[in-house]
Design a protein that fits this description.
302 residues; MetI-like fold
Length: 302
């Protein structure tokens, strides 16, 4: 009997070791994949900067790599990307937060089991479907309200990107708020606060680290969105703060040039890797900001 127990214990330890090795391999594969992407981007980007000044690329205000005279100022692409992201953030942060507050604090268990999966289904819809939705539904509706809006515009793209990333904010914020100890809610009610006051003044601030992480990750997701902005925002690289105008984002340009019409090895071809590298670094900064926010505002309850 004792021998059988020892054999079972040794078998479990061996299984645990193999599971640890598998997890380490998966983590290492993720790191190697990221390093591989960075290597490819740098390999193709360095020759680009032998022909184009980094100063011109970073601070130039004209992006015209496919026509003479060629200009490689990336600021118009960054401007379009940021404009679409800001529009999306202005919509998704309040909507996603209110959805999370309702799911966490006001919805019954039955309603939550129904509504949360329905909300998270939005994250599984292919982005090309969102793109068609923006062109066929959102843009015509906007042009009825705002006739000055162009056929392709940043507002339409930003609104649909917001719909796509609502599950990110709502789900992460809901999980963060549900992790707040019930004792804090009881203390708020004991002081005479209403359910709304407890939700907004006690639970939401206590879950702020998780909520902010949801905001940052949603913004990073919106920053790298491709198909929606390619189909709905247009292909006009310009520096503008008007969301009713057509713009081109960094991902939109990469799709445009990746169609195969640009010869391999040319400066125009390498420009997609340089833009990809800039977007990679921007997304990396967003992820670093997310980790900092989580560590800075994290609350621990015993």
């Amino acid at each position: 009997m004792e021998r059988s127990s020892l054999q079972g214990s040794a078998r479990r330890r061996l299984q645990d070791q193999w599971i640890q090795y598998g997890l380490r391999a998966c983590a290492g594969l993720a790191v190697l994949t990221s390093l591989g992407i960075l290597f490819v981007l740098l390999k193709e980007s360095l020759p680009f900067f032998e022909e184009v000044s980094p100063i011109e690329f970073l601070f130039g205000t004209t992006w015209a790599p496919l026509m003479e005279p060629r200009k490689f100022g990336v600021l118009p692409l960054v401007s379009g990307t940021v404009l679409v992201t800001v529009v999306a953030a202005l919509v998704v942060i309040p909507v996603g937060s209110l959805a999370a507050i309702y799911l966490s604090e006001f919805a019954s268990d039955r309603k939550r089991r129904i509504l949360k999966p329905m909300l998270e289904v939005l994250a599984g819809v292919p982005t090309v479907v969102y793109g068609y939705f923006a062109i066929v539904v959102v843009t015509p509706a906007l042009r009825l309200i705002l006739p000055q809006a162009e056929i392709f515009n940043a507002l339409s793209a930003g609104l649909v990107v917001a719909i796509m990333v609502i599950p990110t904010v709502a789900s992460l914020s809901d999980d963060a708020m549900r992790s707040v100890p019930q004792a804090l809610r009881d203390a708020g009610h004991g002081l005479g606060a209403t359910d709304r006051e407890v939700a907004m003044g006690v639970v939401f601030p206590a879950a702020l680290s998780g909520v902010l992480c949801g905001y940052v990750l949603a913004i990073g997701r919106a920053l790298g969105e491709t198909m929606i902005v390619t189909m709905a925002a247009g292909a006009t690289p310009r520096m503008t703060a008007n969301p009713l105008e057509s713009v081109q984002t960094m991902t939109g340009y990469i799709v445009q040039v990746s169609l195969g019409d640009t010869p391999v090895g040319t400066t125009e071809y390498r420009s997609i890797f340089v833009v990809g590298l800039a977007l990679f670094l921007m997304t990396l900064c967003i992820n670093i900001l997310s980790f900092w926010v989580r560590s800075r505002f994290r609350e621990q309850y015993s």
